[in-house]
Amino acid sequence: MPSGGRSQTACFGERASLTWSELPALQISNHGGMFQKMLRQVRRIPRGKVATYGDVAYAAGFPGAARQVAWALHGCSGLPWQRVVGAGGKILLGGEAGMEQRFRLRNEGVRFVGLRVDMKAHRFNFFARKRPEHTRRG
After folding, report:
1. Stretch 24-50: mean pLDDT, rounded?
2. Which terminus, N or C, of the chain has the lesser number of Cβ atoms within 10 Å?
3. Inside any domain, residue 96
4. pTM to 2 decimal places
């Protein structure tokens, strides 16, 4: 059992025969609305910007649900997954996946300070107002 402390039975009742590899699919089916809102926020992150897992959860209306953002991303493809990082700009993926994330972000122009993304320069603000374009009268 993974180090979460809870058994499969405690989490899923009758579905105790689940394998851990089936967990993301079950989470998406059980929390489809939550995950869809989170994935919608991930799609908003523009090229050259990043957001933390916690930022995405908060913007989707689920503060404190950073782990669920990771679960949602795990079960989907075709999203800019590389733009979601850990707190403080840390790349949380290990091995080749972490190297690929860093490579993709660098290709988008994202700068790093040591092993972390320069969050001052690249953090996406989900709640920033768009500036209205002013037209000149001639």
Report:
1. 80
2. C
3. yes
4. 0.71
